[in-house]
Design a protein that fits this description.
Blueprint lengths: L5 E2 L9 H12 L16 H18 L5 E6 L2 H13 L6 E6 L2 H11 L3 E7 L22 E5 L1 E2 L4 E2 L11 E4 L16 E5 L10 E6 H4 L12 H6 L9 H18 L2 H21 L5 E2 L10 E5 L3 H13 L2 E2 L10 E4 L6 H18 L2
The protein binds pyridoxal-5'-phosphate (PLP).
Pyridoxal-5'-phosphate binds next to helix 3.
Length: 365
């Protein structure tokens, strides 16, 4: 494994080596089954067990209360941008509230507008999406269909530090890039969705955790595949689910439970990793300019600028020479973005920190 790099990609992203090895083994032969995970029927007893284990893993790790259904769907989080308003806004006679803290929230809003009336309760655009607003800076509508947030804006690198309160309005959260990175008080939410390929698995599998009373609101005659109620009654098997993706998420769940020790332990490790990088930004503010306001800093995606685009390009190159890859920031923000998801080892972050310190000494004057 000596040629493996430290992969700072924002997604698809780094996975635990143990999980990759188990997945590799299952591609040839699923333990005890005598066939590949890629070959078995999605209605077979072997997959019954995988689906049930993956569901309990998510449920156990997050402490999902009773009265919620966990779905494994396809289409990525981008399809959830449409499914949420199709199922919960269309024909409701209500308005959906959106809190915009970055690029993904804006995309979610664009799709919601196609399904019904929307209302933007706060928009961080004038500050270049560099912070999460305080609770007293916005107000949810009293009778909104739902209130939508993005818990971690992957591109800007800003994250809610705590679960917000939306009162009696169902809170809907795009948790794509911090899902399973820390404990979440699921009971505060009406619906949580997350594509797996950022922090919880591979592309092609999206988790939806939905409070059961919201299933009652689903309008009639939605396309079957896009109907939460139908997907729930079919146990995520209305059609062929993303079999391999569900399997990998189950493995990631087991790794989190058995090797890491649960989400509290994971969150602590993640905070410690992030602090290694933020400490460098804080100690060298003239050379490294963090994008996020300190109180809104993401524990998953750390974003910063250097004094010039030339130095940024040089930094990315120097990093690559040390096997630290995929550090170029998203084109809309520029600079550097280090995605340090659950499976990024502390050694990788330490190597990046060391490079930052040396690079600053060399070029900081
Ligand atoms: C990556 C990402 C998405 C889009 O996910 P897809 O699976 O590519 O559709 C949406 N929201 C957030 C916060 C993301 O990080």
């Amino acid at each position: 494994m000596s040629s493996r790099v430290f992969n700072f990609s924002a997604g698809p992203a780094v996975l635990p080596v143990k999980v990759l090895k188990q997945a590799q083994e299952a591609v040839l032969e699923l333990p005890g089954v005598g066939a590949s995970i890629l070959e078995i029927s999605h209605r077979s007893p072997a997959f019954d067990e995988v689906l049930s284990d993956a569901t309990s893993m998510v449920s156990e790790l997050l402490g999902v209360p009773s009265g919620y259904t966990i779905l494994f769907l396809q289409g990525g989080s981008s399809l959830q941008f449409s499914m949420v308003p199709m199922n919960l806004l269309r024909d409701s006679g209500k308005t959906a509230d959106y809190l915009l803290t970055g690029s993904w929230g804006k995309k979610a809003l664009t799709e919601a507008k196609r399904q019904g009336e929307t209302n933007v309760v706060w928009d961080g655009k004038s500050e270049n999406y560099s912070r999460i607003p305080a609770a007293d800076e916005f107000t949810w509508s009293k009778d909104a269909a739902y209130a939508h947030i993005t818990s971690n804006e992957t591109i800007q690198g800003i994250e809610f530090a705590t679960d917000p309160d939306s009162g009696s309005v169902p809170l809907v959260c795009d948790a794509s890039s911090d899902f399973l990175s820390r404990p979440v008080d699921v009971g505060r939410y009406g619906l949580i969705y997350a594509c797996a390929q950022k922090n919880a698995g591979i592309a092609g599998c999206t988790v939806v955790i939905i409070r059961d009373d919201l299933l009652e609101r689903v309008p009639q005659n939605l396309p079957s595949m896009l109907d939460y109620r139908l997907q729930a009654s079919g146990g995520s098997r209305y059609n062929t689910p993303p079999v391999f993706g569900v399997y990998v998420m189950m493995l990631v769940g087991r790794w989190l439970r058995d090797d890491v020790g649960g989400l509290e332990a994971m969150a602590k490790l993640n905070r410690e990793k992030a602090k290694l990088l933020y400490d460098v930004l804080d100690a060298n503010p003239d050379f490294y300019r963090g994008h996020a306001h300190p109180a809104s800093r993401s524990v998953m995606n750390v974003t910063w600028r250097l004094p010039s685009e030339e130095l940024e390009a040089e930094f990315v190159k120097a990093a690559k020479a040390r096997k630290l890859t995929d550090l170029k920031g998203h084109r809309s923000v520029g600079g550097i973005r280090a995605s340090i998801y659950n499976a990024m080892p502390r050694e990788g972050v330490e190597a990046l920190r060391d490079l930052m310190l040396e690079f600053q000494k060399q070029h900081g004057g």
